[in-house]
Every structure is written in C-alpha cells, then in structure tokens.
Design a protein that fits this description.
- The chain has 526 residues and is of the alpha/beta class.
- The protein has three domains: 118 residues, no CATH class; 110 residues, no CATH class; 151 residues, 2-Layer Sandwich (Nucleotidyltransferase, domain 5), CATH 3.30.420.10.
- It is built from 17 helices and eight strands.
- The strands form two sheets. Strands 3, 4, 5, 6, 7 and 8 form a six-stranded mixed sheet that branches.
C-alpha cells in the first residue's frame, strides 16, 4: 500500500511549468501608469518596501527552477512573493487579498505590475501554488538576503547623504556591506534564542472523536468501492453506521462522562472499525479499487490503519502516550507538543526555534512537527550566526534549558559568554556575587526581546493560529511571518534614519541662518 501511495504522489507532483523571464529594469513608481490620473507617492509604505527587497537577485534564482520552453507559463517571482508578503502583513484571506490588490494601486505596484488594472492579476486559488513553490527553505533564504540588502541600502543612503554621520541610523549590527573586508577574529554582538509552538487550526483531539471520524472515512470508502463490483461481490457489506453513531453520541453529548463509559465507547468504535477494514480488504480481493473515492481518501485510509493500531495499544496498556501519535486524520503530520504552560499544557502544531540578533532581526533556524529538546539547537544557531556575520556572538542569552554542560563547553571553547549562573559553589566575595547577579538580570532583560518577537508573531502576523492545511504550506506561512517581521524592522530603521536626517538638516539650516544674522549685525555695526 505504501508503494501505491508513493506512485500516486509522484504522478500528482509531475506538473511542469515554463517560466518566461522578462528582462526589464526595475519599474519606478513615478512611471506606474494610473488611468485616472495622478502619480504614486514615494513616501508610501509599500513603495518603501519595494526598495528594501532585492527583486532582481531573487528573480534569477527563482527562474532557474523552471523549464525554459515547456509547460504553462508561471507567474513572476515578484508577484508570488509580493502576494504572500501582503497576505501575511495584512492578515487576510486569499480571497480578500485578491480584492485588495484589485482596489489598491500601491499593492499592484508592489507585486510588479506596470500599470493599474481593474481585473484581478490571478485567481485566489493560485495562492496555494505560490506557497508550494516557495517552501520554508526558500523563504528563509529570501529572509537573509532581504535583511542584508535592506541594511546595505540604509547604510549606503546614510553615507551618500551625509558622509560625516557614517552609519544609516545606527543599524550596522555586524552585517558587513563590504564582502572583501577581513573577517574579524573577536566575537561581537548578542544572540537571543528561544523555541515555541505554532498551533494549527484543528479540533482538540480525543480518542473517541478520532475513532468516530475514522469510522466515517471507512464507511465512505465502502460506499465508493462497492458499486463497480456489485455483480462479482454481491450485497454491500453492512457497516451499522446508525448504531455506531448513536453509541458515539451517547457518550460525546454527556458533560462529564465516566472513564468506564468512555472506554466502553472506544471499544465499540474499535470493533466497528475493524469490521469495516476487513470489509475493505474483502472488496480489494474481489477487484475493488481503493481510488474509487479519490486519492485523498486513500491517504486517509492509511492514517486510519495507523490510528487503529495506536488506539488498540493504548486501550490494552496502562500508558497514555505513544510515539508519533495521530491527532488529526486530515493533517496527519501534526503531533502533540507538550509545552507545560499554565494556559495550555499541550499544543498541536509545529515547534520552531528562532534566533534574534542584537539589532532586532529574527531568523527561523528549525521547524519540526515532532517534539524535540531545543537545547540541542544552540551549537547550530551559533554556527549559523558565524556564517551570517563572520564571527561568533559575544553573548548568547537563553533560558535554563539551553544551559547544559555540552553547550557550556561549546561556548567556553569559542569564547562565548552564555547567560545564567555559573556551575559550582557560589563565590565567597560579596562584590563578585553582586556583579554576577547584576549581569544575570541584564541578560534576562535582553532576552525579553526574543519573547517579544514571539508575541509579535503570534498576535500580529498569524503565528498564533496557522490555518493552512498542508505541511509544506504551513512551513511557508511560518517562515513568511518571520520575514514580514524583519521587513517591519527595516521600515522602522528607515523611518528613524530619515527622521534623523531631517533633524540634522533642520539643525544645519538653523545654524546657517544664525550665521547670516550674525554677519548682518556685524556689517550693520561696521
């Protein structure tokens, strides 16, 4: 059955697309044609975002993944990534996104159109393909390039406008704009790391509700498989669906059913499921087709078989946990993540490890649907920091789960100070103890920034509840939320830089006027 499943997935994935690369220069917002007159404002936030993204560099890499002369033409990269950024930034549905683009000329310019049009540039269903073609790894790579390009642009703008000020709003933060500069040997900067769970939009799973849903899946498969082989097989196998439904509702509708009642209902549902699975095997032996109801129902049958195996083990044993526990038939990749929080002890979704640099930029370092110990990620995150910046961080601020002996040895070997109290007996000198306590409190205050980024992503950019259904599209949505947070940070730095520049120009203008008045008074006195 697994081989059949792989063959079906392979046939479904064989969709070829051609990519027509349009070699044209970056369109200026002054040249964007508006049929009703006027021009776009250069101070608009979407115009500023266009300048912060290296579209040409990203377009070249995107075009290399497509065929040059075979298949239907794909949408441009700027349209695909731009639409995903708009959706994540505005927190809207796919349908509402298309309506917003139809009504807003700034959004049309952002996705790469040359003139305003009253028709939709694509159908809302295309958003699913955009998310599939831009997986998590591609979005993470775009995230790093956008941060690097944005900081370089702000720094170059500050150097061009005022050579004496040097930096572009104080946002150098270890991102070197000169690739030929020697790599510094001294550790610099601060790395903040943490992990969290990104819950998905599924019903809270219980054993009884999952078994009832699995039973309904087997009944639909039997109804679809029997008609083509009615003459050879005979009468359709009985499923006792009404009786099974009544047995389920008799317990599910009770406010606080007893454990004995729940166990009895689970045993009844398992019996119905085993009979239905045996009927499906008999239909297959008689020539029935598993794909009669569709390939997605065949995939659910595989999940149902695994669910029955797990529930039989849990029913006949004393344990309440099992590896790779199925919690959703429609999203079988989801696993329970034990968080130990007061509000929600167990969450269902992807577990992610993120890192925040001292300048406030966020990176997605790991995404997994299986639970793991985030303390194992410290070494990899420090190495990735060195790849991005050319040196290790001076300080790593993390919570207690990261302060293992292996991580302490790694940090000591590379000259990195890991936040938190040191191992061993406390020092006898009160001044040293007070200094260590002050340092620990300072590190804790700095580490609040990564908690704030997690809260920003969950409250503002959709990480609090992922509504995509597929594992690939869910990873894309999570990585996009991180990318949009960095775009917001770049916009903030750009605004601070231009505010500082305006204040500087206003100060120079006031000094010039004062000098002119002084010279005028001196001339009058002479």
């Amino acid at each position: 059955m697994c081989a059949i499943r792989l063959d079906i997935a392979e046939k479904q994935s064989r969709v070829f697309h051609m990519y027509r690369r349009e070699h044209r220069h970056q369109l200026s917002f002054e040249n964007f044609f508006l049929p009703f007159g006027g021009k776009l404002s250069g101070s608009n936030r979407w115009i500023k975002l266009v300048e912060l993204i290296p579209w040409e560099e990203l377009e070249n890499d995107y075009a290399s993944h497509f065929s040059k002369g075979f298949g239907a033409p794909a949408k441009p990269f700027r349209m695909a990534l731009g639409a995903l950024i708009i959706k994540a930034r505005l927190a809207i549905t796919d349908e509402e996104l298309v309506e917003q683009i139809k009504e807003n000329p700034y959004l049309q310019f952002f996705i790469g159109l040359e003139a305003f049009q009253f028709t939709a540039p694509f159908d809302p269903s295309m958003m699913v393909y955009f998310r599939k073609r831009l997986p998590e790894s591609v979005i993470n790579d775009c995230n790093e390039r956008i941060v690097r390009h944005g900081l370089t642009m702000i720094q170059s703008a500050g150097t061009d406008d005022d050579p004496d000020t040097g930096t572009g709003g104080g946002s150098s933060s270890g991102h070197s704009s000169n690739d030929d500069a020697p790599t510094p040997a001294v550790n610099q900067g601060t790395l903040l790391i943490d992990a969290t769970c990104v819950p998905v939009d599924i019903r809270y799973p219980t054993d009884l509700s999952l078994l009832n849903e699995a039973r309904e899946v087997t009944e639909k498969l039997i109804d679809a498989m029997h008609p083509p082989i009615r003459e050879a097989f005979g009468q359709k196998p009985r499923t006792h669906c009404k009786k099974a439904r009544q047995q389920f509702l008799a317990v599910a509708k009770k406010k606080r059913p007893r454990i004995s009642k729940i166990r009895k209902a689970i045993k009844q549902q398992l019996g119905h499921l085993e009979r239905n699975l045996a009927s499906i095997d008999a239909l297959i032996a008689c020539g029935g087709c598993l794909l009669a109801a569709g390939s997605h129902w065949y995939h659910k049958l595989l999940v149902v078989s695994e669910l029955v195996r797990q529930q039989k083990i849990l029913y006949h044993s004393d344990t309440r946990s099992i590896p790779d526990r199925v919690v959703s038939l429609f999203q079988s990749h989801i696993r329970p993540i034990v968080r130990g929080k007061a509000r929600c002890n167990v969450e269902f979704g992807a577990k992610i490890s993120i890192s925040v640099t001292g300048d406030g930029f966020t990176y997605l370092d790991r995404l997994s649907y299986d639970p793991y110990n985030e303390g194992e990620d410290l070494k990899a995150q420090a190495i990735v920091y060195r790849r991005r910046h050319g040196h290790y961080p001076e300080v790593i601020c993390a919570d207690q789960i990261y302060r293992t002996r292996a991580n302490r040895a790694f940090c000591q070997r590379h000259g990195i100070r890991l936040s938190g109290p040191r191992l061993g007996r406390p020092k006898s000198d009160p001044e040293l103890v007070a200094e260590e306590k002050r340092q620990f409190l300072d590190d804790q205050r700095q580490r609040n920034a990564v908690e704030g980024k997690i809260g920003q992503g969950k409250r503002r950019f959709g990480l609090g509840l992922i509504r995509e259904k597929l594992a690939a599209t869910q990873g894309t949505a999570i990585a996009l939320a991180v990318l949009v947070m960095n775009l917001e940070k770049l916009l903030e730095l750009l605004f601070v830089f231009f505010s500082f520049l305006l204040q500087l120009l206003s100060g120079n203008e006031a000094i010039r006027r004062a000098e002119e008045q002084l010279l005028g008074h001196q001339a009058a006195a002479a």
